């Protein structure tokens, strides 16, 4: 059986008396893109926050390649291979697009700053950073300051930074939100390329059905914080649970 890269087991968080994520047990395999769907307030973002470490679990576990990371802070999970697009954008607005990506590659390789100043390593890092920028079609803007980028290009840069980190688990929160119609396909094609690499797993919180249809191998549905459905897209989309959830009726009646 393909290895589970990420697993949550009984993952739960309570905010006061409210259970935002309710005992979610789920495994994510290499080569699989899982869309996480559900109505507003279902717990999708909170589930992502629990996995990436922004929110601490009240109960349950998160395992990354078999290792329990439930108590690890965000940065530690990131080093161990968990990559979430927005959390990584500690972008330096006064540095260029290229410099931002180059710093991430440098940090990943744990090279010292003295090495950075050496011409050979600097050139090698630049080549690697440019290759990443070409993948997101940002290479023509490599010398632009990040602070001056359009919203769509900043989102692309988030994806570039994520690729530069080379995680085993990619987490995307509505990756094309706010992008123009000609910008979105670049990011969606890139996610499809990452999926084709087969040795990663990709989690996608997404509301747009056309995006889900084109990319997802599997859909999980959260409702009131709990796992309401899990399976292949055709079956899940046709299920009562999804039909009812998206029509806003109470799932308790289904
Ligand atoms: N820090 C918090 N403190 C208190 N309640 C919270 C907190 N974070 C989330 N919640 C609540 O948990 C529930 C789940 O919220 P969450 O944002 O995860 O839903 P979602 O499925 O991502 O919704 P949307 O699609 O609107 O983004 C909501 O009722 C929300 O109000």
UniProtKB/TrEMBL annotation:
InterPro entries xref list: AAA+_ATPase (IPR003593), ABC_AA/LPS_Transport (IPR051120), ABC_transporter-like_ATP-bd (IPR003439), ABC_transporter-like_CS (IPR017871), P-loop_NTPase (IPR027417)
Q: Which PROSITE patterns match?
A: ABC_TRANSPORTER_1, ABC_TRANSPORTER_2
Q: Name one GO molecular function term.
A: ATP binding
Pfam families assigned: ABC_tran (PF00005)
Look up the domain of life of the source: Bacteria
Q: Which UniProt keywords apply?
A: ATP-binding, Nucleotide-binding, Transport
Where in this chain does the record put each ABC transporter domain?
Answer: 6-249
Q: Which SUPFAM superfamilies match?
A: P-loop containing nucleoside triphosphate hydrolases
* Family designation: Belongs to the ABC transporter superfamily.
- What's the name of the protein? ABC transporter ATP-binding protein
């Amino acid at each position: 059986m393909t290895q589970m890269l990420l697993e949550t087991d009984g993952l739960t968080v309570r905010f006061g008396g409210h259970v935002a994520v309710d005992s979610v047990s789920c495994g994510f395999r290499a080569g699989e893109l899982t869309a996480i769907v559900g109505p507003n307030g279902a717990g999708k973002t909170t589930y992502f926050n629990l996995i990436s470490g922004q929110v601490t679990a009240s109960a349950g576990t998160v395992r990354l390649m078999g290792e329990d990371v439930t108590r690890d802070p965000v940065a530690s999970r990131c080093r161990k291979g968990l990559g979430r697009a927005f959390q990584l954008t500690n972008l330096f607005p006064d540095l260029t697009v290229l410099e931002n990506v180059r710093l991430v590659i440098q940090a990943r390789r744990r090279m010292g700053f003295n090495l950075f100043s050496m011409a050979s390593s600097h050139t090698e890092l630049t080549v690697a950073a440019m290759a990443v920028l070409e993948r997101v079609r940002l290479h023509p803007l490599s010398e632009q300051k990040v602070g001056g980028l359009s919203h769509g290009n900043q989102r692309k840069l988030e994806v570039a930074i994520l690729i530069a980190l080379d995680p085993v688990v990619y987490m995307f929160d509505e990756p094309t939100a706010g992008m123009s119609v000609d910008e979105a396909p670049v990011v969606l094609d890139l996610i499809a390329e990452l999926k084709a690499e087969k040795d990663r797993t990709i989690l996608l919180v997404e509301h747009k059905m056309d995006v889900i249809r084109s990319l997802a191998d599997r859909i999980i549905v959260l409702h009131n914080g709990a796992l309401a459905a899990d399976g292949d897209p055709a079956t899940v989309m046709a299920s009562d649970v999804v039909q009812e959830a998206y029509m806003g009726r109470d799932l308790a009646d289904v």
